């Protein structure tokens, strides 16, 4: 079912860079009013300037979505400025690679605070209002990394699996209130986040192409929006494999910095010295 309201209001959290920025511009080109949130005000202001001359517009609404009260307050301000949004896209997310041998609860907490806590705070602000109005669209951004636990991504994969499960859980209940819940699961998209990756990223997409796919999904009632499809289907197949086969494949994807040799080499793994002695 297509959404025939190109002038609708979209609140996009995580709009300053990467996928969110490209999506904000795409939606503004479609004629929508996009309220863009992120922590960095300059990113949002430059985004709003970039949208000048398009048929829609982008309004900056700076926000740290890990702050629950600030998220609720932001929605109140948005309602006063442009009315209750028709669509909310919870895109803010981050990733820090964490080798298992350097398991760090602070990395875990930080990723969970943004990737899961940010989605929870957005949902907590929006759901009661959409329920009352009996209409709305909530689109959360997960990742194919949420289909299956990937090496060095125990925190990231766990956070994105949580986002996907939240979407699955909310969708059938909220549709009875006229609310469409969707999950976006991208593969690799070239953004400041993935620019940090040192490994080759298969089927890497440009953010504008990902944004076009997401915008198309926002006009439909489908639950999952994925891109690029060939890669996301491969990841779905991976998740269905028996564990011995899955681990044989994911083991090969362990990056050099997460292997015992790397920890031995930088002298941080005292146990490694013992292992060498044992092996000798
Ligand atoms: N790029 C990929 O290959 C890929 C693949 C799968 C899934 N994803 C997911 O797609 C989403 C966007 O990723 P991206 O690659 O475009 O990332 P990005 O380039 O790092 O952009 C992330 C955006 O989120 C905002 N953000 C981060 N923390 C925030 C917070 N606490 N409050 C409000 N805004 C916050 C950032 O702005 P500030 O820092 O200024 O707040 C920025 O505008 C994420 O959820 C990511 O996990 C990306």
Structural features, described:
The chain has 280 residues and is an alpha/beta fold. The protein has one domain: Rossmann fold (3-Layer(aba) Sandwich). Helix content is 49%, strand content 13%. Strands 3-2-1-4-5-6-7 form a seven-stranded parallel sheet, sandwiched between helices. Helix 4 links the parallel strand 4 and strand 5. The protein binds NADP nicotinamide-adenine-dinucleotide phosphate. The site of NADP nicotinamide-adenine-dinucleotide phosphate has 33 residues, from helix 1 and helix 4.
Distance between the termini: 66 Å
CATH level-four homologous superfamily name: NAD(P)-binding Rossmann-like Domain
Q: How confident is the prediction overall: mean pLDDT?
A: 92
Radius of gyration: 20 Å
| CATH architecture tag | 3-Layer(aba) Sandwich
Q: Largest sheet, if any?
A: 7 strands, parallel
Instruction: Please count the beta strands (DSSP E, at least 2 residues each).
Output: 7
CATH class: Alpha Beta
Q: What is the CATH topology descriptor? A: Rossmann fold
Number of domains: 1
What order do the helices and strands follow?
A: EHEHEHEHEHEHEHHHH
Helix content: 40-55%
Give the strand order, joined by hyphens, for the main sheet.
3-2-1-4-5-6-7
Sheet/helix structural class: alpha/beta
Total of DSSP H or I helical runs spanning 4+ residues: 10
- Bound chemical compounds: NADP nicotinamide-adenine-dinucleotide phosphate
Overall shape: it is: globular
Query: Uncertain segments of ≥5 residues (pLDDT<50)?
Result: 269-280
The portion of residues forming beta strands comes to 5-15%
Region (Disordered): 258-280
GO cellular component, one term: membrane
Protein name: SDR family NAD(P)-dependent oxidoreductase
Keywords: Oxidoreductase
């Amino acid at each position: 079912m297509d959404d025939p309201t190109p002038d609708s209001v979209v609140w996009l959290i995580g709009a300053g860079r990467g996928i969110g920025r490209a999506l904000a511009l795409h939606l503004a080109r479609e004629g929508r009013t996009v309220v863009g949130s992120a922590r960095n005000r300059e990113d949002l202001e430059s985004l709003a300037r970039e949208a000048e001359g398009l048929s829609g517009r982008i309004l900056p609404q700076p926000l740290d979505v890990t702050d629950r009260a600030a998220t609720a307050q932001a929605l109140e301000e948005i309602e006063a400025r442009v009315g209750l949004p028709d669509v909310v896209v919870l895109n803010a997310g981050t990733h820090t690679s964490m080798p298992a041998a350097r398991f760090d609860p602070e990395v875990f907490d930080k990723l969970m605070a943004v990737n899961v806590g940010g989605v929870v705070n957005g949902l907590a602000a929006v759901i009661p209002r959409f329920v009352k109005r009996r209409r709305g669209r909530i689109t959360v951004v997960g990742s194919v990394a949420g289909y299956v636990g990937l090496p060095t991504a125990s925190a990231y994969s766990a956070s994105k699996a949580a986002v996907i499960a939240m979407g699955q859980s909310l969708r059938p209940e909220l549709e009875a209130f006229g609310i469409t819940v969707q999950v976006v699961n991208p593969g690799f998209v070239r953004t400041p986040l993935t620019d940090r990756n040192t490994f080759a990223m298969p089927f890497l997409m440009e953010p504008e192409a990902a944004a076009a796919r997401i915008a198309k999904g926002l006009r439909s009632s489908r639950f999952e929006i994925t891109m690029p499809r060939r890669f996301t289907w491969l990841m779905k197949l991976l998740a269905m494999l028996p564990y011995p086969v899955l681990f044989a494949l994911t083991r090969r994807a362990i990056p050099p910095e997460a292997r015992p040799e790397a920890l031995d080499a930088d002298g941080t793994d005292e146990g490694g010295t013992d292992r060498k002695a044992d092996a000798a």
